[in-house]
Specification:
The protein has 9 helices and 14 strands. The two termini are 31 Å apart. Helix 3 packs parallel to helix 4. Helix content is 33%, strand content 23%. The chain binds alpha-D-ribofuranose (RIB). The site of alpha-D-ribofuranose (RIB) has 15 residues, from strand 2, helix 1 and strand 8. Alpha-D-ribofuranose (RIB) binds next to strand 2, helix 1 and strand 8.
Length: 295
């Protein structure tokens, strides 16, 4: 089974600071670092590091060729990535002394997908393959329609949540991977159990993975539910923690692993990622995750 991620590639400019800047305030930074990121690429790298057969598709500008090298380095098939005459997407990320972040996003090339490009990419995939999407590229409504018509299983991480998701027919989604804030935005509810119940009522066809930050993660499919607590660690940077969880979860699911084991592996991978700076470079290898679980 192949997994395709049509998703963002961002150059992440990370500013370490005492606290996240407030309106009207000027705040000195203690350190600046540049990393590769973007929810799409982060999740593709997590899938690759977990051992999945992952293809990443998306657009970069001339300043983004480094993503092709990253695909080779981490085992992501990047043959569908195309270069256009536009800036590569970028993110300005502030990280405070508690490892909390806040992100400013410039879409750039990520927002220039066309129907012709989507058709070209999807032509390489078939019924039963998994398509993974986030909300950092354009054309989501079209991509979902075309992939669904082909019989692909569609996994959606509706992040960041905004009105662009209105174009997506969510009844065509097989797997939702979302945090409690996004779950609240979709359902209008706050309590995790209520969010899950409402998601299941709206989308009875879907598996739901709801991450709850320090409170762990929940999984629901029909009458089956599982809960996975976090592995507590001293975090230095929480960027890409959710992306790591998502990539590992889909990798385990595509292997046919039992869901409780998939949840445990994903939570461990995510707990390792937050102990390291950056997005792509923070994502652990499957071997590291398994060794950590065996301790
Ligand atoms: O989920 C983390 C990612 O969000 C960062 O890598 C940044 O690029 C933004 O897309």
């Amino acid at each position: 089974m192949k997994v395709l991620c049509i998703g963002s590639m961002n150059l992440d400019h990370v500013y370490m600071m005492d606290h996240i800047v407030a309106p009207g305030e000027t705040e000195a930074v203690s350190e600046i670092k540049n990393f590769l990121g973007g929810k799409g690429m982060n999740q593709s790298v997590a899938l690759a590091k977990a051992g999945a057969n992952i293809y990443h598709a998306g657009l970069i500008g001339p300043d983004g060729l480094v993503f092709l090298d990253a695909c080779k380095e981490h085992g992501v098939n990047g043959e569908y990535i195309r270069q256009i005459d536009e800036f590569t997407g970028h993110a300005i990320i502030q990280i405070d002394k508690h490892a909390q972040n806040c992100i400013l996003l410039y879409g750039g090339a990520n927002q220039k997908l066309t129907e012709a490009y989507v058709d070209e990419v999807l032509a390489g995939f078939a019924a039963g393959d998994i398509l993974l999407l986030q909300n950092e590229v354009n054309m989501l409504g079209y991509i979902v329609e075309q992939a669904f018509a082909k019989g692909m299983q569609i996994a959606l991480n509706p992040s960041p949540f905004n009105e662009k998701l209105d174009e997506v027919d969510m009844t065509k989604i097989s797997i939702f991977l979302l945090n409690e804030i996004e779950g609240g935005q979709i359902t209008g509810l706050v309590k995790p159990e209520e969010i899950i119940a409402s998601m299941q009522e709206k989308f009875p066809q879907a598996k739901i993975v709801l991450t709850l930050g320090k409170d762990g993660a929940m999984y629901a499919e029909g009458a089956t539910q599982y809960y996975q607590p976090i592995f507590p660690v001293q975090a230095v940077d929480t960027t890409a923690a959710g992306d790591t969880f998502t990539g590992y979860f889909l990798a385990g699911l595509s292997e046919g692993m039992p869901i409780p084991a998939v949840l445990k592996m994903s939570a461990k991978a995510s707990s390792i990622a937050v102990t390291r700076p950056g997005a792509v470079p923070s994502i652990p290898l499957r071997k590291e995750v398994e060794e950590a679980l065996a301790k």
